[in-house]
Amino acid sequence: MFDMVLLVAASFLAGVLNAVAGGGTFLSLPALIYVGVPPVSANATATFIALPGYVSSAWAFRHDIRAEGRLGLPAIVALSAAGGLLGALLLIVTPGEVFMWVVPWLLLAATVLFAAGPYLLRLLRRDEGRSIGPVSSAAVILAVSVYGGYFNGGLGIVLLASFGLLGYVNLHGMNGLKSLLSVVLSVISVLTFVTAGLIAWEQAAVMVVGAMLGGYIGARQSRRIVRTDLLRHFVTAVGAIMTVLFFVT
């Protein structure tokens, strides 16, 4: 019963955080590992749990989705799908003990990226209008998608940062494309994980409900939050605490 309550609470809070600021993986992944789900399966299940939130976000931004830079939208979507598949396959062949060694480093990287997100985006937007070549653009999208297929934490800010490198300047368009690519690569990843039997369905069934409810409430309340910087600090603190716990255990 305690494990059930923990999973519901973690998924609900993860849904709220993902809807408002991001960083829900900092709660959902550790909760799954804590209740005994094997690390690789926990990571796959956490990606599955985050998918409904990505879909709702993409729908909300559906009118803003557009490509800038040197690559068209079909090419970007195709690269994202390919990268998501490669990342998922990489996770499947990663031994559990190796992934447990990698997890704290992934959490650390995601926490640093999340904390530095606003500064990083401001830095990249100083060069508005400048774009890298099509080959380099394709390499960036593919690399970020591989990361997202392997580990979902911090995916949003990594995608936004990559769009800045590609020369994007329309923030609404960036958020729309971020949501779309998150859906594409996560769907490919989840289908791969389902085929490989990595989804912990018993835990996932409970957490999807909590995540969807949290996402709905978070989206409804997000406009009322005045100090989003404090929320970002809170998410960063949660990520830092989870990172430390995984390093010392």
Question: How would you describe this protein?
Answer:
The protein is an all-alpha fold. The protein has one domain. 79% of the residues lie in helices and 0% in strands. It is built from ten helices and no strands. Helix 5 packs antiparallel against helix 10. The longest helix has 30 residues. It starts with a helix and ends with a helix.
How many β-strand stretches? 0
- The helix content, as a percent range, equals over 70%
Low-confidence stretches: none
Determine the number of helices (DSSP H or I, runs of at least 4 residues). Answer: 10
Instruction: Please describe the biggest sheet, giving its number of strands, its sense, and whether it closes into a barrel.
Output: none
Total count of domains: 1
Strand proportion, as a percent range, falls in under 5%
Ends apart, CA distance between termini: 24 Å
**Mean of residue pLDDT values:** 83
Could you say which overall geometry the principal axes of the C-alpha atoms support? globular
Helix/strand/pairing category: mainly alpha
Order of helices and strands: HHHHHHHHHH
Q: How many whole angstroms does the radius of gyration measure?
A: 17 Å
